Amino acid sequence: MTTSATDQTQIAFLQQQPVKMLIGGQWVAAASGKTFETINPSTGSVLAQVAEGDVEDINQAAAAARKAFESGPWPKMTPSQRGRLLWRLADLVEQHADELAQLETLDNGKPIKYSKGADIPLTADHFRYFAGWATKLEGETIPVSIPNMFTYTLREPVGVVGQIIPWNFPIQMAAWKLAPALACGNTVILKPAEQTPLSALRLGELICEAGFPEGVVNIVPGFGETAGASLALHPDVDKIAFTGSTEVGKKILQASVGNLKKVTLELGGKSPNIIFPDADLKFAIRGAMTAIFFNQGQVCTAGSRLFVHKSVYDQVLSGLTDVARKMKMGPGIDPSTDMGPLVSQEQMERVTNYIDIGRREGAVTTTGGKYAGSDLAGGYFIEPTVFDNVQDEMTIAREEIFGPVVAVMPFESMEEIAARANKSIYGLAAGVWTSDVKQAHKMAALLKSGVVWVNTYNQFDAAAPFGGYKQSGYGREMGHAVLDAYTQTKTVWMNLR
Ligand code: NDP
């Protein structure tokens, strides 16, 4: 089965060309009239022309978001009404689950079994979880030591929020950003990634259908250097929430200085995944496989440094090599596909370059390491790749590759491995595989990362905080932790004398 024209034409959303952007409740062309192509990475063919937002569109979106924040129905809505809108949006996402999953898979390349089984249900779940928070944003009464004073706090929205998201989980990233911002009463300008704008724009239609007032959510597709950069710089945007590379995260921070925007950053990683000899090895090998190859390795938490105790190293290496070889590569839209293409030609070249560097520096592939698109309609396919003979100092063991490439390395003791695992500029996530509970807790305490998974990997839930240590960013998404990022505290003093 291939990604045929039929798959695309079945999606009504793709009939409108070019796809427009959402500003102030209206679907509009770019002010410049320009459009850009979004590509199906399984074939390299053009999926759709999309309106290309730039400075002027961001200005208009910021004006619409400001107006909606200050006046009109949104600031007058009760928390319960905001919650209901989010709940209705979750229902609409579920009602259109098949269409959204297909759109996501066609635009990003990910296997349809994952977009159907994970991306879309988790998106609906996210809106529903934060629908519940809208009515629970409580202030406090403060027992100050000044007589006759009644002092309390209010939690208020931050204002106009710019949200810049990446291409690896397009609709989920939109939900992670939009749901808490809206639950807290902010208004939003969302810039999806240039590679994958479609599901966010379709979500925009559902947001309108759910009944959010005009201007509360504005969606401006376009390029990072233009639309993204002007959003990050805009003097009337109060906060930026960003997910993407550490390099661009630093630019966002610099751009925020002008009006001291509040900034939260969810950035890159080089996550250690550590297998102790007492682990259930069959289970751990499968875990190591999904840790690195899920979503073609294009996951900020990808378990790209696999540390294996030397006593079971050979067994794990050959087991992982074996399961990697058996993964079925193919177009994402094929239900039997385990691994789809990378998102773009640029990303494929980037990953290929890392594989070449790995070999030049002395690492050896036990499987994979090659372009696999010749037999697959010319899409951006790279084989699942396992590297042996890796040293900690090698480029492939230090830098984020963001592709299906794992560096496997042996270790001898717990103290040694904790130090080596932590020797990274990143600190996003880590995995530990062991049947010794004490060892698991000790490792969880020693690892310097925002998330530690024990005998599991890549678990996410709307209720569980997620974010990085070190250069993996700051601020947290999900759970009640994210509410701090989208509210500010006002302290009210009343003299009762
Ligand atoms: P980027 O960090 O460039 O992209 C993330 C988002 O930021 C996109 O929407 C992008 O726009 C936007 N952007 C880019 N430049 C700017 C800017 N100057 N100002 C404001 N916004 C900007 O990631 P890439 O897509 O270039 O991927 C490169 C690498 O980044 C990957 O190989 C991976 O290592 C890492 N990455 C990490 C992710 C994570 O989840 N932590 C996600 C994606 C990438 P545009 O639409 O034009 O790309």
Q: Structural class per helix/strand content?
A: alpha/beta
Low-confidence stretches: 1-6
Helix content: 25-40%
Determine the number of helices (DSSP H or I, runs of at least 4 residues). Answer: 16
Largest sheet: 7 strands, mixed
| Bound small molecules, deduplicated | NADPH dihydro-nicotinamide-adenine-dinucleotide phosphate
Question: Strand portion, in percent?
Answer: 15-25%
Gap from first CA to last CA: 78 Å
Q: Please state how the strands of the largest beta sheet are arranged side by side.
A: 14-15-16-13-12-18-19
Could you please describe the fold and organization of this structure?
This protein has helices spanning 5-9, 55-70, 79-95, 97-108, 112-133, 170-183, 198-210, 224-233, 246-255, 281-293, 313-326, 345-360, 395-398, 414-422, 437-446, 483-486; strands at 21-23, 26-28, 35-40, 45-51, 141-142, 149-157, 160-164, 187-191, 217-219, 239-243, 262-266, 272-275, 305-309, 364-367, 385-388, 405-411, 426-427, 429-433, 451-454, 469-470, 473-474, 487-495. The protein is an alpha/beta fold and 497 residues long. The termini are far apart. The chain binds NADPH dihydro-nicotinamide-adenine-dinucleotide phosphate (NDP). The site of NADPH dihydro-nicotinamide-adenine-dinucleotide phosphate has 26 residues, from α8 and α9. NADPH dihydro-nicotinamide-adenine-dinucleotide phosphate binds next to α8 and α9.
